[in-house]
Amino acid sequence: xxxxxxxxxxxxxxxxxxxxxxxxxxxxxxxxxxxxxxxxxxxxxxxxxxxxxxxxxxxxxxxxxxxxxxxxxxxxxxxxxxxxxxxxxxxxxxxxxxxxxxxxxxxxxxxxxxxxxxxxxxxxxxxxxxxxxxxxxxxxxxxxxxxxxxxxxxxxxxxxxxxxxxxxxxxxxxxxxxxxxxxxxxxxxxxxxxxxxxxxxxxxxxxxxxxxxxxxxxxxxxxxxxxxxxxxxxxxxxxxxxxxxxxxxxxxxxxxxxxxxxxxxxxxxxxxxxxxxxxxxxxxxxxxxxxxxxxxxxxxxxxxxxxxxxxxxxxxxxxxxxxxxxxxx
Length: 329
Hints:
The protein has nine helices and 15 strands.
């Protein structure tokens, strides 16, 4: 007689065991194997479910601002109708850049209320400096702006402060501590700057360079780069200058600048040679560091604000009805 046993086990199908008379049941090994397979599958499913519930890894974060080299931006400025407008625009660009210290230098005997108030409201880390351009170096009535170099005394005043020679009239009074990692950039108040430019220059080791748009009568001026090295310059005016670059087209590593205490701008330099008067003390042209995709991207523009026409204002002033001078423009 044939005995039939049916087992209910956790397998995909019922398990039938056919036994002859007096035949012992040897079903346990295959049942154990089937149960182990199911256990392994359940374990794998649990692992996959846990992976799905686990949050994705956080993306790589940029360095904390505290470990970034500081960018010291030196800006000479002078009193004129558009001064505040220019400085507001520049300050709002700089406010987008982390780890930045603005050195704003007035062409005056001391700090003016307009610039002092603007700096206090900017939210930036700043140092306020002031030095008057000597009369012999100032533009005379009717002279074009290119006849004499401008901002020389003011830029040199900022370099003096960085070197620990004091002179601050507002903001941060103490210069960078020895060993501070940083980069120095000369940013005139009438240019237009992309935020990207500042990140390009931040890790400068010596002197870095890039193109400048709308300058020198060209769409852009800048270094020519081959195999990652500067081999010449795209410029139309006096291409044989030692460094035919615009003031907005280079940055200097702070340690290099501090290691060359006599490097400064020369107010007596010939036209177009002001930048060379500083850079010649700091670097050989072949060692310049090209930035901005090997100098193929323009990230700063040599823009100029049109001088406002004040005919109506002058007419009203003659009538005693001019704009309220207490309203700051």
